[in-house]
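Final report, Chapter 2: Outcomes

The project's central promise was a pipeline that accepts a single protein chain and returns its three-dimensional structure in a standardized token representation, suitable for archiving and comparison. That pipeline is now operational. To close this chapter, we reproduce one record exactly as it appears in the project archive, with the input sequence first and the structure output second.
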Amino acid sequence: MKKSMFMIIMMSIFLLPTAVFAAEEVTTADIQANLDTIWVLIAAFLVFFMQAGFAMVEAGFTRAKNASNIIMKNLMDFSIGSIIFFVFGFGLMFGDSMAGFIGTSGFFNPNTLDLGLNIPMEVFIIFQTVFAATAATIVSGAMAERTRFAAYILYSAVLTLIIYPVVGHWTWGGGWLSQLGFIDFAGSTVVHSVGGWAALVGAAIIGPRIGKYGKDGKVHAIPGHNIVLGALGVFILWFGWFGFNPGSELTADSALGGIAMTTNLSAATGAVVVMIITWLKYGKPDVSMSLNGVLGGLVAITAGTAAVSMWGAIAIGAVAGFVIVYGIEFIDKVLKVDDPVGAVGVHGLCGAVGTILVGLFAVDGGLFYGGGVKLLGVQTIGVIAVAAWTLGTSFILFKTVKATVGLRVDRQDEELGLDHGEHATQAYADFVLKI
């Protein structure tokens, strides 16, 4: 009896798909559409997990007395940004174009837009939402440990509402940069440089943390409280980038393997190059700088991940390694801009350099592959235009916030920590913190 029942169940399992196919014919196009949908959703979830990576990097690279504040900022920029981007940002980015500058339709209900996609609109919206959140959260690290929480909420919302979507429209929404042939496959400039340039302006306007620079101009290092937590964040981001770049293909096809390989090779090369430079420069390999080398390589390859060869990716990662070491030093020691996590160097500088390098290393149209200087010129124009837009709008935004609600906490709250002053809590309640 048990054996007969088992045979009936097994036959039902094997015959059920036959019955389904018999009832409704499934075409190859249907299967491909379903595969595309599943893949883009998985990629979106990987990119969403990067939010945890950013939170861990920022918390680990800063002091323990501000950890709760950092977690709260990373939570709220995604939560508030998700709503704002759905209601307004997506339409500005992908709506009907006005002179190639900005979208003008799809507000409140993005499903009304017809973008000719092979995936449901809801899937594309969530994928773009997690990208918008990435741009917003970059600013948090550069302004950590001295920014008012209310001010952060305001400028994060505006970044997601208009600054980021406008650049996105220029490049991915059919705007003027895309018409020129500008290549930014997954957002070295659109996502990372936008966040990096906004971070530069914000960190410059708010000023350095107490004790960062002496009266004689000497730079005083302020170590983070947990390098292990920061390293965990970097590994999470590296993992999530396999959704960030391959997911931007928006289809499950044979190109995904190549995109994953260029992504990984650039990240690995960035880490190795930074390790070697810091070893030679300082006598010891620098841990935190090498971790940023991974991120710099990832950011730099994101523009050309589908356009360059694997050896081209290694070259881009190597250049990013130099940019990380000398770019972060320039920002810290020459510009005297206090960026606790190196966000400007990683996202702003590496994003810009990586985008320009597509003009050299793109297999189709790159200067090193016989394509002349046309693509290199277009890439440079795009980088300059995005930098000008973001620096200008961010300057207005941060100055406005500073003049209205206030940008910086008072001295007492900064010294006691933002966990205490902004949230009346402690991240490590069972530990005695050194202020």
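Archive annotation: The chain is about 70% helix and 0% strand.
This record, like all others produced under the grant, will remain available to the consortium after the project formally closes.
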